[in-house]
Amino acid sequence: MSHAWTKEFWRGLPFIASSNDPASPNVLLGAPMDFSASFRPGSRFGPESIRQVSYNLEEYSLFVGKSLEDLSFYDAGDLQLPFGNVSRSLHLIEEAIRGCLERGQRTFTIGGDHLISWPCLKAYSQHFPQLTVVHIDAHADLRDDYMGEERSHATVIGNALRELPLKDVYQFAIRSATQREHDTAKRTRFFPFTFVEPLRTVLGEISGPVYITLDIDAVDPAYAPGVGTPESGGITPHDLFEGLKLLSAKNVVGFDLVEVAPAYDNAGITSALAAKLVRESLLMFGRQP
Fold first, then answer.
1. How do residues 120-163 score in pLDDT, each as one tens digit?
2. Are 253 and 167 in contact (CB under 8 A)?
3. How far is Cα 12 from Cα 48, in angstroms, rounded to an integer?
4. Cα dist from 24 to 19, 75, 111, 120, whole Å
5. Angle between the N-to-C axes of helices 269-285 and 237-247, in degrees from 0 to 180, rounded to the nearest 10
6. Measured between alpha carbons, how far apart are the two ends of the chain, in Å?
């Protein structure tokens, strides 16, 4: 599997302070792919931007009450993905995730557009029977296709519903969908516009292994303008942190964060939010040896 990683790692950043051991129980990796962007491209530069902004982060989280110094994790850098080759890139992402799972590792993947979640979900659903997916996003992503393309960031959750052996799909903070997607949402637990309050009502029924896929455009563009498809009326960063903390009581086995597009990110505030979300997620969902 080593052929899939970059040879140069992001030395000196807080994200790799705890371990240089590829066998660590938690692996952070970038998937710099934005080939299915439907409005503003550039999320392939998200992983690098998030790592750069992470210079500003302390290892300790006041919100979680833990430090990255106490968690063994490895930053594998970015996957080397052939620009423009969608099928090969998806294969390489799936191969990398599958290799981590076979070694008993938990993955934290940074995109890239939301299509990078598709190979992650494929690998996780095959490794964990009865996987539950928690999808936090401005968009339903339940289309059958987008402009004739069945593999798109607009179809990723629809693909998962149609093709993967999932137990449940919970969708939160959605505020954009076609009428057909809204009809398809009857097959999911669909909670539009908000996150924390509906999550509290269903938290007790969420069981088994859980995979969280987070599109940062779930957050209102006032707080996260640097995204490919901004949608007004979103949740606040505090809502997002609070909801993720509630989910930390569950068996979260994998996590991804997608759609940071630095070219549209005034003063780097979206990357700063994403970097903090990565840190908090590592601390909340990371597996101890």
1. 999 999 999 999 999 999 998 886 555 556 666 568 998 998 89
2. no
3. 13
4. 7, 10, 21, 19
5. 10
6. 22
Backbone angles phi, psi at 185, to 5 degrees: -65, -10
Q: Cα separation of 215 and 226, whole Å?
A: 12
Q: Is the dihedral of CA 205, 210, 215, 219 positive or negative?
A: positive
Nearest one of 17, 32, 23, 19 to 1, comparing CA atoms:
23
Cα 12 to Cα 30: distance, rounded to the nearest angstrom: 17
Which pLDDT score, from 0 to 100, does residue 2 have? Answer: 28
Report the amino acid identity of residue 115. L
Backbone angles phi, psi at 7, to 5 degrees: -80, -25
The tokens for 3 are: 């052929």
pTM above 0.85, yes or no: yes
C-alpha pair distances (Å), 137 with each of 5, 80, 223, 224, 229 = 28, 26, 14, 12, 11
Q: How far apart are CA 2 and CA 186, in angstroms?
A: 41
Query: For residues 255 and 150, what is the distance between their CA atoms, to the nearest angstrom?
Result: 23
CATH-assigned architecture of domain 2-285: 3-Layer(aba) Sandwich (3.40)
Per the document, the length of the chain is 289
Q: How confident is the model at residue 286 (pLDDT cuts 50, 70, 90)?
A: very high
Using DSSP's 3-state secondary structure scheme, residue 139 falls into strand
- Here the tokens at position 41 are 């491209």
Q: Which amino acid is at 43?
A: S
